[in-house]
Amino acid sequence: MKLFIPGPVDVAEDVLQKMATPMISHRGKDVTKLQKSISEKLQKVFFTQNTILLSTSSGSGLMEAAVRCCTSKGAAVFSVGAFGDRWGKMAKSNGVPVDVFKVEPGIPTLPENVDKVLATGKYDLVTVTHNETSTGVMNPVREIGDVIKKYPDVIYCVDTVSSMGGIKIGVDECGIDICVTSTQKCLGLPPGLSICSISEKAVERAKTIKNRGLYFDLVELYTFVKEKDFQYPSTPSLPHMFALDYQLTKILEIEGLENRFKRHEQLAIRVREWADTYFKVLAKEGYQSLTVTTIENTRGIDVGTLVKSLEADGFLIGNGYGDLKDKTFRIAHMAERTIDEIDDLLTRINKKLGFKL
Amino acid sequence: MKLFIPGPVDVAEDVLQKMATPMISHRGKDVTKLQKSISEKLQKVFFTQNTILLSTSSGSGLMEAAVRCCTSKGAAVFSVGAFGDRWGKMAKSNGVPVDVFKVEPGIPTLPENVDKVLATGKYDLVTVTHNETSTGVMNPVREIGDVIKKYPDVIYCVDTVSSMGGIKIGVDECGIDICVTSTQKCLGLPPGLSICSISEKAVERAKTIKNRGLYFDLVELYTFVKEKDFQYPSTPSLPHMFALDYQLTKILEIEGLENRFKRHEQLAIRVREWADTYFKVLAKEGYQSLTVTTIENTRGIDVGTLVKSLEADGFLIGNGYGDLKDKTFRIAHMAERTIDEIDDLLTRINKKLGFKL
Fold first, then answer.
1. CA-wise closest residue to B189 among B30, B348, B336
2. Which residues on chain A are in Cβ contact (under 8 Å) with B7?
3. What is the pTM of this model?
4. How far is A102 from chain B (nearest CA, A)?
5. Cα A50 from Cα A171, distance rounded (Å)
6. Do B202 and B53 touch, CB atoms closer than 8 A?
7. Contacts of B290 (CB under 8 A, 6+ apart)
8. Could you read off the pLDDT of B229-272 as tens digits, one per residue?
């Protein structure tokens, strides 16, 4: 089965094999060396000098950690879809004061709206979804960052779960305090490990917050990296660490970051052109994702039937997410996917739907 | 390197290979089938009819979930060492009212003490460490369970992280409401996934608790199993699920549970006899662990030198944990270890320390 769903993605065979590396102690020098190596490589992928934290959890784990550990006055959650809403739910379920600012499907988070909300002085933490997997909207995290710089007490958190490693996100340039991602999307690994970069400002904020919990306490994770020589408070998923370290070398030294970004852009353009020809891209122009395209079902096709028929051929695409089920469908183009594979998929869809090439 | 540390353990090569299984969607029928199969097998290992929950995290994740989600009046944490203390820390860091009842290293949690504490009426949740990895103490969870049955509003939580799968723990017989374990100990898998069984009573309690968080919300995990056909709220570590399903079949159908328990007992007896001959087992007689032996350094040997010298030979044993460093050392005998491997290790230690056989 070839996966064109927005995660989990197909993992290269040699990377999968690293998941089968024999175990080591999680307290020895080898694990310090491993986590340090991963951190240094991730700093390059994130374009940051900030500290890298790993967590054995899905991306949701560190997203929840960010909003729980670093909100004092209140969190302003800017949502452009299901995964933005999720950040609101995380805040509420932890008793964190939060307001969710939501737009219609396909519409991005605009810097001027963030400015207006922050001007109220009610919030000291902002969450933004860089790349919303449900709607295929990509938000202008740099321009939003420029606005946030005017508010020095605000912690800027960005969900880059479905974009980091496929799209250039200059974490330091954008002024992102906590940038969260996970392994099973553009980084091209199996699910099971999440990653964030954290600024000193966010760590200082977290130190002032009570009841941060333990497993997702960002101060605890940070302290183990800084004071215990790149270790992890509990036993981490060593298989993911072995595979991540290996895959990061492949990304940085074999494909090269710039080439990887370019490939993701080319894949996106190809799918977008096809979608514009036969359907309509849901996301507003200028804010269309480079890793997943959500296609409006303007022809009223039976999406379920299309998905099943492709699945029978060994190609898995995504139905619409949540409320957008059947009204949209989704093609992900991330991690190791190639133009040939995308062309093969689109040709098959054309045939099934009776489109002429 | 052969690991004789109390986790991570060495993983059989065929099990490791399952970690390299190609990815599937985390929302399809295949993943439902996989999680259902794992659950049914784990119910046999746990000797329970309760619901099995999986969490992509270390065992600490679900331990924290239990004390956070299910304490209303107060938690009574019975600690016999570092991992018992950890449960106290988890409660405190979540603002959960808690008292920690701690004994000296080597001493167990006695049912009569639990009875005395519960008789105060101050607590509606109890945590007990079945097998304390720092001191090598194994607590009488069944006898403690008999006491707890007298207090119908108390939720009984047991940490079986370093024992489940190696020692018979009849979860239902003992009346354990939440029984937590993780993959990297007696189950013989890599770290990265934790598991618990949960009773209906614990689920009902959790529903009454505010601010349970999201990632470790036991109600959310339970609802996805019960109402969404054995699925997981976020993207789980699929590699661990593939490997766990496979390994559980090996445990149940190839070795057989009873044989596995017997092997663990034989390994423990061998190490204990050796320890009693040349040193002293830290844990009180009658409460000595069947999976890890903590040995009192009665001869004042240089533990660090012994550990390093064995490591150079490719054998990793554990130094004492925390305060017990250098005062004790630890030999784990769990997962796939054999009598021959233990004999080989002990012979080497004898040679290094100049003991006669």
1. B336
2. 235
3. 0.98
4. 20
5. 9
6. no
7. B131, B138, B163, B166, B167, B264, B265, B267, B268
8. 999 999 999 999 999 999 999 999 999 999 999 999 999 999 99
